[in-house]
Amino acid sequence: MAYYWITEAQKYIQSLGFGVTRRPINMVPQRVRINQWGLDNSFSTDHKDELRFGKGGVDDAEDAEVILHEYGHAMQGSQNPGLIYSGETGGIMEGFSDYWAAEVSQLFAPTPDPECIADWDSVSYTSTTPHCLRRVDTDLHYPSDLNGRVHHDGQIWSRALWDIRNALGNVVADTIILEGQFGFAPDTTMPAAAQATVDAAERLYGTTAEEKVLEAFRARGILQ
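The structure corresponding to this sequence follows.
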């Protein structure tokens, strides 16, 4: 299952032109290890360029959105090997990976609640319904709702990306989002990363797309 979703994600990336007419994104064989981590957790590591999926409760490699989330980290590592996993940069990394999980799973295996992330895996550790690890449609704002926890803060970023996607459609939005990530500084802040994304929108699709992207980031308080 892990290789299926990684393959579908990479095929989608290439359908947007990355690795064809644009710079490639993690267009290499991806090492995967399942049930190798004794905790109910998973992670992407640059050591041997691996994705490691944990066990406990529902095994993480049984949930498409957990797989896609970790592959999102591998994608960012391919685009920006120096990204620093802490502070706002870490929140951006987690937010994008949540967005990517929601986006690709919605494209290929839609659910009634696409904004709910890892709803299969999270049945083992949540008691309320819907069961969600996180969501991409929260009403968190920058900078008032930052609390230094990257998974929490990432929901500010993922909501902005989800709004861009809803405004522009998946093809245009994802092309902009992925192209913009090439321009992130290693210690980027959310406003700086947002501006890089806005610049990518203007460069690729002109003023109309640029204004939609600006609107999404302004709604979250990331850009003024």
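The mean pLDDT is 90.
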